[in-house]
Design a protein that fits this description.
Oligomer: single chain
Largest sheet: 6 strands, parallel
Shape: globular
Number of domains: 3
Mean pLDDT: 92
CATH topology of the largest domain: Rossmann fold
Helix content: 25-40%
CATH superfamily of the largest domain: Thiamin diphosphate (ThDP)-binding fold, Pyr/PP domains
CATH architecture of the largest domain: 3-Layer(aba) Sandwich
Number of helices: 23
CATH class of the largest domain: Alpha Beta
Number of strands: 18
Radius of gyration: 24 Å
C-alpha cells in the first residue's frame, strides 16, 4: 500500500504559510530521526497526530488490534536497524498495548510508544475513556513521559528519541493529550540528553582479560542495540575467544562457526555448559544473565566481567555500566590473541543430545519443522509461544543475528502473526517464515487482514495438533493429571485464510508438506500452510 507523499512540512509552511501545530512538529521530528514506519490503530484522542501523519513520508501500517500493533513494532525493531514506533488512542486503545509493552520491556527492545489522551483539564475526572496511562505503564517501560504543557511535551519528545538512540534499554512511552497536539507550534531550545555511565572498572576488566587463559564471552542482544555487531565479530575472530549466546542473540556469530558454542542455559549445549564451568574469565556483553541463561550465578560471580547499559541488570564483582561500543573498542585495541588450545578443548566435548522422532514416517511437529527449516535458507523465521518454539530453537542453526525472532522472556501467545508483519515491513527483500501453533495463531488471527492488505510475502506454517500441547504435557508429566481444558475445537483455517485472499494448503503427510513448501516459496505473496501433526512431547530441560 503506497501513501501519497506530499512536500515536506517546512516547504509547505514557507509556500502556503500554513501554521504548524504540535502534532505536525512531532511528525517532523520523527522524520528527521529516520522513522520510516509507524504501526498503529487510530482513535478519537490521537486523531490530531494522525492528521499530521497523513501528509508525512512516514508510512502508517494499519493493524487490526493495538496488541498486534506493538508486537509488530517490537519485531520490526528486533529484525532491522530501524527505530520501531507504534501509536494508539487513549483508554482501551492504550490498555491493549500492555501485553506488547511488557514483552518489549522484558527483552529490552528499544521502541517508541505513543498514546493519545483526553484533554488536560478532564484527565483526573471520571471521564469517558480516561485512565492514568503513565501510572499503569510505569512498570513496563524504561521511561514514561506524561507532559502537561506544550513546552514540556516538545522537551519530552526530544528526550525520548535521544534515550532510544543513546541509552537503548527498552521501550519508551509518551502520553499526548489531544488539546496539546492541536496547540500552535512554539520554539524551544532542543534539550540534550547525556546518560551517565561508569567506566571505573574498565582498566581492571582489561587487565583481567589479559591475564586470562580460558576466556568465554556470553553474547546478549545488547550487542545489536549498541550497533556493535561488526566490532564484536572482529573481537571474537581477532582475539580467538569462544562465545555462547543467549536466546535473543542467536546468530550474533554464525552458529556454524567453531567460535560459537551455541545456546547457554536451560537449552544450552553440552559444549556451552562445559565452557562456562571450565573458563577462568566470563565476559557477559549486553545480557541481563537471567535464570534461563545462568541458573546459578554463584559459581561464576568471581570470574565475571559484566558490561550492560542498564545498571540494574549488572551482576558479579567487575561491573561496567556503559555502552558496549566503548568497551569493545578498548578491548579490540589490545594486542592480544588467545591460542587455539582452549577452543580445541571445548570442541573435543561431544554433545550426546539427540532429537527423537526424526526417523518417523508420520508427520510429527519436529519433522514438520525440520522440513520448514530446510526450505527457509536465509529467510527470517518468526515464532509464537508454545512447543513449536522449543522445536525450532533446538533444531535451527542461525547464520545471522535477528534471523530467528520470538517473544523471548515474557513469551505471550499471539506474538507470531504481528511479529511476522513487523519483520516483513522492516525487511522487504527477505522471505518471512512464520512457524506458529494453533493456540497462538488464534490470539491475533485478525491480522491476516493486515498481511493480505499489504500483500506481505509471509509463509505461514501452522503446526496444528488441535491442542495446547505444552500445557497438556505439563498436566500429564508434572502434575500427574488427565489432560484438562487443552483440546481445541478449531475452525476451518483454510476457509479463514481464503476469506482474507491468502493462498492456502492443508497437508497431513511429509510428502504433501514438501510439495506445499515448494509452492509457498515459489511465489512472492502471502501463503498459508496448515500442517496437521500428531501430538508429541518436547524434550524438557534437565
Amino acid at each position: 500500500m503506497k501513501l501519497k507523499v506530499l512536500e515536506n512540512t517546512t516547504a509547505l509552511i514557507k509556500k502556503k504559510k500554513i501554521n504548524m501545530n504540535i502534532a505536525d512538529r512531532l511528525v517532523k521530528i520523527l522524520e528527521e530521526n529516520g522513522v520510516k514506519h509507524i504501526f498503529g490503530h487510530p482513535g478519537e484522542q490521537i486523531l490530531p497526530f494522525y492528521k499530521a501523519l497523513q501528509g508525512s513520508k512516514i508510512q502508517h501500517i494499519l493493524m487490526r488490534h493495538e496488541q498486534a500493533a506493538i508486537h509488530a513494532c517490537d519485531a520490526y525493531s528486533r529484525s532491522s536497524s530501524n527505530l520501531g514506533v507504534c501509536v494508539s488512542t487513549a483508554g482501551p486503545g492504550a490498555m491493549n498495548l500492555t501485553m506488547g509493552l511488557a514483552t518489549a520491556f522484558k527483552d529490552n527492545v528499544p521502541i517508541l510508544v505513543i498514546t493519545g489522551d483526553n484533554s488536560i483539564d478532564i484527565r483526573n475526572e471520571d471521564h469517558f475513556q480516561s485512565i492514568a496511562i503513565s501510572k499503569i505503564f510505569k512498570n513496563i517501560t524504561f521511561k514514561s513521559f506524561n507532559p502537561k504543557s506544550v513546552k514540556e511535551l516538545l522537551n519530552d519528545f526530544y528526550i525520548a528519541i535521544q534515550i532510544l538512540n543513546k541509552n537503548p534499554k527498552g521501550p519508551v512511552h509518551i502520553n499526548l493529550s489531544k488539546d496539546l497536539l492541536t496547540c500552535s507550534d512554539i520554539s524551544i531550545k532542543k534539550p540534550k540528553y547525556d546518560p551517565v555511565f561508569n567506566y571505573d572498572n574498565l582498566n581492571k576488566a582489561l587487565d583481567l582479560i589479559k591475564k586470562s587463559k580460558k576466556p568465554l564471552i556470553i553474547a546478549g542482544s545488547g550487542i545489536k542495540y549498541s550497533n556493535s555487531i561488526r566490532e564484536f565479530r572482529n573481537l571474537v575472530y581477532e582475539k580467538n575467544i569462544p562465545i555462547v549466546n543467549t536466546y535473543p542473540a542467536k546468530g550474533i556469530i554464525s552458529e556454524f562457526d567453531e567460535h560459537n558454542l551455541g545456546l547457554l542455559g536451560i537449552r544450552g549445549s553440552k559444549k556451552s555448559n562445559y565452557a562456562l564451568k571450565n573458563s577462568d574469565m566470563v565476559i557477559a556483553l549486553g545480557s541481563k544473565l537471567s535464570e534461563r541463561t545462568v541458573q546459578d550465578l554463584s559459581f561464576v560471580e568471581d570470574k565475571l566481567i559484566h558490561v550492560n547499559i542498564d545498571e540494574e541488570k549488572l551482576k558479579g564483582k567487575c561491573k561496567i555500566h556503559g555502552n558496549l561500543a566503548i568497551f569493545l573498542k578498548e578491548l579490540n585495541s589490545l594486542n592480544l590473541k588467545f591460542p587455539n588450545e582452549w577452543i580445541d578443548e571445548i570442541n573435543s566435548v561431544k554433545d550426546d543430545f539427540k532429537i527423537q522422532g526424526l526417523d518417523s514416517h508420520k508427520l510429527n511437529p519436529q519433522i514438520a519443522i525440520k522440513n520448514i527449516l530446510n526450505c527457509s535458507n536465509d529467510s527470517l523465521i518468526i515464532n509464537d509461544a508454545g512447543t513449536h518454539t522449543t522445536w525450532t530453537t533446538i533444531m535451527s542453526k542461525i547464520s545471522e543475528n535477528s534471523q530467528l525472532i520470538f517473544s523471548g522472556s515474557f513469551a505471550p501467545m499471539g506474538y507470531g502473526i504481528p511479529g511476522a508483519i513487523g519483520s516483513s515491513i522492516g525487511n522487504p527483500s527477505k522471505d518471512i517464515v512464520l512457524i506458529v501453533g494453533d493456540g497462538g495463531f488464534q490470539m491475533n488471527i485478525q491480522e491476516l487482514a493486515t498481511i493480505s492488505n499489504y500483500k506481505l510475502p509471509i509463509k505461514i506454517c501452522l503446526i496444528n495438533n488441535n491442542e495446547l500441547g505444552i500445557i497438556r504435557q505439563y498436566e500429564e508429566d508434572i502434575y500427574n493429571m488427565e489432560k484438562y481444558q487443552v483440546d481445541l475445537d478449531n475452525p476451518d483455517f483454510i476457509d479463514i485464510s481464503n476469506s482474507y485472499g491468502i493462498s492456502s494448503e492443508k497437508v497431513n503427510s511429509i510428502k504433501n508438506l514438501k510439495v506445499a513448501l515448494k509452492n509457498a516459496f515459489r511465489v512472492k505473496k502471502p501463503y498459508f500452510i496448515e500442517i496437521m501433526v500428531e501430538s508429541e512431547n518436547i524434550p524438557l530441560p534437565k
